[in-house]
Hints:
- By secondary structure, the chain is α+β, with helices and mostly antiparallel strands.
- The chain folds into 4 domains: 3-175, no CATH class; 215-267, no CATH class; 291-342 and 406-495, L,D-transpeptidase catalytic domain-like, CATH 2.40.440.10; 344-403.
- Helix content is 39%, strand content 16%.
- The protein is built from 20 helices and 17 strands.
- It has helices at residues 3-17, 26-36, 51-60, 79-86, 99-103, 112-132, 137-140, 153-163, 167-172, 179-192, 215-225, 236-248, 259-265, 269-285, 347-360, 362-367, 451-461, 465-469, 471-477, 516-524; strands at residues 42-43, 46-47, 294-298, 303-308, 311-321, 330-339, 343-344, 370-374, 381-382, 398-402, 413-416, 425-426, 440-442, 446-448, 481-494, 498-500, 506-508.
- The strands form 4 sheets. The protein has an 8-stranded mixed beta barrel with strand order 3-4-5-14-12-11-6-15. Strands 7-10-8-9 form a 4-stranded antiparallel beta sheet.
- Helix 14 crosses helix 20.
- The longest helix has 21 residues, at 112-132.
- The radius of gyration is 30 Å and the shape is globular.
Amino acid sequence: MNISKLAKGLVWLIGLSGVTTAYADEDLRMYLEGLRAGAPAVLVGQKLQSAQAVMAFYLDNNHQPVWTGGGTLAAELKVLPTAIAESQAHGFLASRYHHSLLIEPIADEQADYVTELLATDAFMTQARHRADGVVSPASLDADWHLVDAEHNVVKDLNTLATQGNGVEAYLRGLWPNNADYNLLIQERSRIAAQAETHTEPVTPGVLLKLGSTGPRVLRLKNRLLGPGEYTDVFDAALDRTVRIFQDSANLEPDGLVGAATLEMLNATRVDWIDRIDANLERWRWLPQQIPEDYISVNIAAFELKAVRSGIEEFVMRVVVGRPFRETPVFTEDMRYFVVNPYWNVPFKLATEDKLPKLKSNPEELAQTGYQVRPAGEQTFISVTDVDWSTVNKRNFNFLLRQQPGPANALGQIKFMMPNDFAIYLHDTNDRSLFLKRERSFSSGCIRLSEPEQLASWLLHREGRPEDAAKLSAQIAQGETRTINLRKPMPVYIVYFTASRSMDSNLVFRRDIYQRDSKIVHALRKD
């Protein structure tokens, strides 16, 4: 006797008698009870990636099927594998969502619960991954601290099961809906349709420049100019071509072919798709709701964008953290800015960068405005009044600061968004760095090329044109002044190596912090 069929029949008969109206699938119930007891979340060799949410959904619904056995979403079951296949255009692996088994469900009637569970797990996992990202950013990037609330897939599947349709529209609506994400998708499709070229890459080695010779120069010519008959001399024509390529790749157009130029030059069609997929994933990590007014700093693009009412009003160049002092990704509200600021030197910088200079030549730091306050004291003294010979990192009990002035490292304005990373936006006394294409020279904070423009924009946004008009005079006076914002301004510090330019073209940037490969590896891992 088929016990499973008998049990289902009994439940159905009980329902007819009016004792209960719930149709509980016993195979489904028994499998899920096993999961709750600690059994592995594996079904016909397929791992259930949303096992906790799956268990919660069926517990809420008394183990009633929704995709099979006459369930309310039975007509939607054929839609699910189509949606999964379409998600591959966003960098998803179809195999992660039981695609093949949903296209051809197991024929055995007793195995309906297998299809049921795989469909629910696929739906929930797709929904989570579209809304929140395929992988947790914290597991891949220790410097990514911008995390949105996790999407409630149990609640949404309950809603869809009640109305009996809408699966495809629901899933489609979970993709990030903005011009940047859509441009990445369009460019991914265009590149994927191209034929792969097979030009030999230029192998790493000594710097190639005007006058260099050898087989690597030949490979460079083939890579840039296409296959042909060339000499192995780095001549003036090649120098011009290299500079044009560097300029188009947002590299310093200096004609010097080193590691940075080779990284961009040797990229293949697959590499560009990988780069796009890493950035699509980053968009899925971001909060779905972005305010209409905000400031964004793209670390990898070395630029700040000011957005009001959803429109980018200006872009400025910035300097970001060095690769060994990376600027973190996070969001915080800017609450005030300071004209003619003091610089309180963070402990790490004070002990690692400044202490050796204090030991060797404290007079030099004193001349550029540095003071120190010993622990427990209320007043600052000159750095020349301390015997630094006995001070080390362990007994450095001082607050080191630099007074306002032309030598101040923060320049004339600093913008404060209190955060756990001691990161803020500020002016700088070294303007030459803004002339470079790649600008990773700071110790983590973000230096602005046009700080007064940003301050004026913030004040005009608040309807304070009279305060904006006073800025230049206040700076010239040299007095330290704090200007509080009446409306805190959201600031998003992000990292995108492929992003939309002001003219709506996709621009690829070099991965200065080497973060893309970790994301791509996780996305490709089945």
